[in-house]
Design a protein that fits this description.
This is Sulfite exporter TauE/SafE family protein. This protein is an all-alpha fold. It is built from 10 helices and no strands. The protein has one domain. It starts with 5 loop residues before the first helix and ends with a helix.
């Protein structure tokens, strides 16, 4: 059964960075501004992103476990192929959204806001960020921020069919997002202006769109 490779998951995270900077930029900036303590800024950003990666990995393991538990249905329905196809459709929608050609993915993010509304009060209690432990906890909560980019890869984790594969898929994706978000912590204004350029967004969108189309082609050829 075809599945989203770890390299592809990392590339989705990297190319989707234009979305990360726009959506998570305010949170990353908050880590930098809410810093009355003496801890190095880089240590706080690394701690926060470590917490985020832990949440992604946990979510991937749960999704992979759910996918594994549904494998008994494959005698009745092509569950694995359907989940993989859905993951590729999500990547196509993500690519169109990143390129600025379609906004359907926003409806998926709104659905996920139900969970975030319950977690957001906990996030505000962690502020101001003064120590790495606080940053790590904030990162754990940050990992559940509604995000169509995350949901696209989470469906791929569901299609992977095992907790280990699901966890590794989400971990690879999270590692792919690191360069953009760490850079955001240091060059917030310049990076935000750069990713707003149409050519940057369209290039990233086409790259993700291409991954989704290639995945769909693998289902039929």
């Amino acid at each position: 059964m075809p599945e989203l490779s770890l390299l592809a998951a990392a590339l989705v995270g990297l190319m989707g960075g234009v979305h990360c900077v726009g959506m998570c930029g305010p949170l990353v900036t908050a880590f930098a501004l809410q810093r009355p303590g003496k801890e190095p800024r880089l240590l706080l950003h690394l701690s926060a992103n470590l917490g985020r990666l832990v949440s992604y990995t946990l979510a991937g393991a749960v999704a992979g476990g759910l996918g594994e538990s549904s494998l008994w249905l494959r005698q009745l329905f092509p569950v694995e192929q359907l989940l993989f196809g859905l993951a590729q459709v999500m990547l196509v929608l993500l690519g169109l959204y990143l390129a600025g050609w379609n906004r359907w993915l926003l409806h998926v993010e709104r659905a996920g806001s139900v969970v975030w509304r319950r977690l957001q009060p906990l996030f505000t209690r962690v502020l101001p960020i003064e120590r790495p432990g606080q940053a790590f906890l904030a990162g754990l909560l940050w990992g559940w921020l509604p995000c169509g980019l995350v949901y696209s890869v989470l469906i791929a984790a569901l299609a992977s069919g095992s907790p280990t594969s699901g966890a590794l898929t989400m971990l690879a994706f999270g590692l792919g997002t690191l360069p953009n978000l760490l850079a955001m912590g240091w060059f917030a204004n310049r990076l935000a202006a750069w990713v707003r350029r149409p050519v940057v967004r369209r290039t990233a969108g086409l790259a993700v769109l291409g991954l989704g189309l290639v995945g769909l082609a693998r289902l039929f050829f």
